[in-house]
Amino acid sequence: MPVIRPLAVALLIGVLAAPASAANRVSRVCLNKEAQQAAISSGQAIPLAQAIRAVHRRPRDVVKARLCQDTKGLVYVLTLLARDGKVTRATIDASNGSVISGR
Q1: In degrees, to the nearest 5, what angle opens at C-alpha 39 toward C-alphas 64 and 29?
Q2: Per-residue pLDDT reduced to its tens digit, 44-99
Q3: I want to staple 92 with a disulfide (CB 3.0 to 4.6 A). Which of 55, 68, 76, 88 is the partner?
Q4: Mode of pairing for the β-strands spanning 99-101 and 87-93
């Protein structure tokens, strides 16, 4: 009878579980610097400062900001750090500045 090593089992479980978790994630393609500037210049996206103002009702620092193409259009994905150390994400509609998720 073959011996199954714990590491091999863990790797197999990780490989089998990966497609299911990947399927649950939102599909986004983030724009490079030039594409971001073009989207803002053409009026397809609001400036980043305006998107940040949408989530600054509570004191939080933006530690990362990305402009991405989502299934519904352009969105800003902001990673926020609260004063208490809690890290959250906010998704902002880049066409109008409305908060989609993560207040």
Answers
A1: 55
A2: 999 999 999 888 766 678 999 999 999 989 999 999 998 889 999 999 999 999 99
A3: 76
A4: antiparallel
Q: How many CA atoms lie within 13 A of 36 on its CB side?
A: 14
Q: Rounded distance, CA 48 to CA 97, Å?
A: 9
Task: Provide the pLDDT for residue 59.
Answer: 62
CA distance 66 to 43: 17
| Size (the chain), residues | 103
Residue 85, both tokens = 């150390």
Do 16 and 7 meet the contact criterion of CB atoms below 8 Å apart? no
